[in-house]
Amino acid sequence: MSASLPSAAPPNHPPNPRPTDQGAALVLVLVLIGVLGMIAGSLLLVRWTAYATAASNVDAWQARYLAEAGIERGLHGLGQEGEVWPADTLVAVAGSLDVRIETRPFGLMRLVRSHAEAGRREAFVRVLAGERPAPLFEHALVLWGPVGGAGVTLNGATQLRGDVAVVAPAGLALDTTTTLDGQGFTGHLNGLVQRYDSIHVPAEFEHVHELLDRYDALIDTAQTRAGPPAYTSRSAARWLPEEMAVTVFKEEAMFSSADSAMFRHPRTVVVRGDAWLDGPLKLEAGTRLLVSGTLHVGAGVESELMVGYGAEGVVLEAGVRTPGQWMSRRSVSVRAGAQAEWPSVLAVAGDGAEAGEGIVIEGMVEGTVVHPPLSPEPAVPHGRVRIGAEGLVRGIVLNGAETDLAGTVMGSLVSRQTHRYYRSETVTGTHLINWLIDAEIDLTGRPADFVGPARLLGGERFEGIRQESVVDEVAK
């Protein structure tokens, strides 16, 4: 009997994996690598962005500080006799780092512009600068007219706080006993009265005449032109007056809120005729408005920094509340209720002063009032600065002619002489020279950091008043 052999068991091999399982694992690995790569890339991008931002900020701050250091150098240069900064003057302010400094007249003040670059950033800083007063302006009252008068006579409720310097014969510096129409001196004098044979006033009055000559020439010859490239998209801190756009009107012109777009950027506007500014209207800092006729400025007109010249006159109407440099050949009038805010300058210089016109203040002026003597100077002073009973000047009145003071000066009155015309029922009309009647001068009312027009206050130091700045990418 034959026996059958048991059949051999099949080998115990695991089943072969499916090809689709291997593909899924590969995709999963690749996705995981991609995600990790994106995360790593994002982290690197964040770190790089932070680094680039930090580096840009460092460049921006460095450029800004360099430009501000350039401003200080520029101000120092203005205070040194004969030292100026022409266009693109390179000055080393921090080792080998150079800054471009330029200075230009802006009215009777000065503009200093500084430009610095650091890395890919650049900074422009522009400052309106004024002159610190000389020691002479630490007196409340200075009368420098020729010897021969009777010094200064105080009458009525006059209040005088501060020292007085007067040219007068010996023993006649001060008179508080003479009565007028039965009225004596009932006010107060708090200061020393000093007599001199002569007083030197450190003011370059011809500078005012030269400036107005330039304005007259510009009115005659100016042509309309556009501003520099990117003028309308860049900060005003970049520009100086000579670089700005010019717009010329060949006849009288009236500007109102409808013209706001034109004044959105600083420019020189020339009007061959009369001109009216009617608010609400804002003029960009740095605007110059030069008018061959009379310039009328109405309520609601605003400007941080402007020059307004009217050859025939300038009138600030009631309701005006704006700083500016207001100049004329004939007259500047600040009506009651108007306020020429700090740091305003009022100046009249020209033959028109012979007609008895000059500067009339019934409102308020915060700044400097300037009236140079006529050239050649007449035997009898012509031209007046008249401050009415409600008028107030907080700053300095510098007058090469006659000052008629019925109101208040919170600061210094430096004048060739004072003049009052007095008439009453018992006193016929009479001209009183160097009399103060019911007036007030208070030196302590002037700000301690006061600065005024260049070359008129005799100081040797300039200080910035208003500053504008911009930091941007370096222009390509």
**Class by helix and strand content?**
alpha/beta
Taking Cα atoms only, what radius of gyration do you get, to the nearest Å?
36 Å
Mean pLDDT: 85
Largest sheet, strands/sense/barrel:
23 strands, mixed
- In DSSP terms (H or I, runs of 4 or more residues), the helix count works out at 2
Overall number of strands? 33
Fraction of residues in β-strands: 35-45%
Low-confidence stretches: none
Whole-Å distance between the termini?
111 Å
Fraction of residues in H or I helices: 10-25%
Specify the overall morphology.
elongated
Report what the structure shows.
The structure is a single chain. With 476 residues, this protein is of the alpha/beta class. Helices cover 16% and strands 39% of the residues. The protein contains 2 helices and 33 strands. The protein has a 23-stranded mixed β-sheet that branches. A 5-stranded antiparallel β-sheet has the order 1-2-3-4-33. Strands 9-6-31 form a 3-stranded parallel β-sheet, with no helix packed on it. Strand 29 and strand 30 (430-433) form a beta hairpin.
Topology record:
Blueprint: H1 19-78, E1 89-94, E2 97-106, E3 109-118, E4 121-131, E5 141-143, E6 152-155, E7 159-161, E8 164-167, E9 174-175, E10 188-190, E11 193-196, H2 206-221, E12 245-249, E13 253-255, E14 267-271, E15 275-277, E16 281-283, E17 287-291, E18 294-297, E19 301-303, E20 306-310, E21 313-316, E22 321-328, E23 332-334, E24 339-348, E25 358-361, E26 364-371, E27 384-387, E28 392-405, E29 408-422, E30 430-433, E31 435-437, E32 440-442, E33 462-473
Parallel strand pairs: 5-8, 5-29, 6-9, 6-31, 7-10, 7-32, 8-11, 12-14, 13-15, 14-17, 15-18, 16-19, 17-20, 18-21, 20-22, 21-23, 22-24, 23-25, 24-26, 25-27, 26-28, 27-28, 28-29, 29-32
Antiparallel strand pairs: 1-2, 2-3, 3-4, 4-33, 29-30
